[in-house]
């Protein structure tokens, strides 16, 4: 991640959770996950291990971590990781969440402790990743057999550049993701049963003061 992007997220970290739209997007993705993975929702995955890349302040992580045995959070921004770490003491007892200031680029990163994961998540992060195929390959390689890669981001459209105000455009790699491209990358990474589908619409204020709905995709695949 270029330094300017890291410093943007470092400086936004302290106020990240005060944006109700951002908080809502993670809550909506959490609902989308629970609807499609009922075993997680009913607490039947408490012995499973997970990771998340681009976790930010942990808006999604704090929902998912209590449902799993161990939850490893990765983000290249120290500011984001500091905010997430400040939340750890107030998580439900028995929650094992660890945060790493790290771009996870290798499946044998020491942070993974020599073990795979059963779930790998990301939310609102793909649009920041320069080489999505490498990241998806890496995430697929971290999965145990039977493990799931579950990613979410806003969908590219003729108006999706409105998602970010113009002064942030230099900080993003793309204005949303294209479902067919992500599906192809997940299949190329060897994942099976890949599904990419609409998961929710997020109403968001845009430059100029009006509000737009942005469609989000959920991208899911399983390692055999
Ligand atoms: C839009 S924020 C989303 C944070 C969090 N997932 C949320 O929904 O609140 C994107 C996050 O991805 C991180 N990031 C930026 N570039 C990245 C990359 N190449 N790989 C992984 N994470 C990255 C940023 O530091 C930031 O925390």
From TrEMBL:
Coiled-coil annotated residue ranges, if any: none
Pfam families the UniProt entry points to: Methyltransf_23
Gene Ontology biological process: methylation
Record key words, sorted: Methyltransferase, Transferase
UniProt KW Manganese keyword: no
GO molecular function ontology, one term from the record: methyltransferase activity
Domain of life from the UniProt record: Eukaryota
PANTHER family (alphabetical): PUTATIVE (AFU_ORTHOLOGUE AFUA_2G14390)-RELATED, TRANS-ACONITATE 2-METHYLTRANSFERASE-RELATED
Name by which UniProt lists this protein: S-adenosyl-L-methionine-dependent methyltransferase
Organism: Pseudomicrostroma glucosiphilum
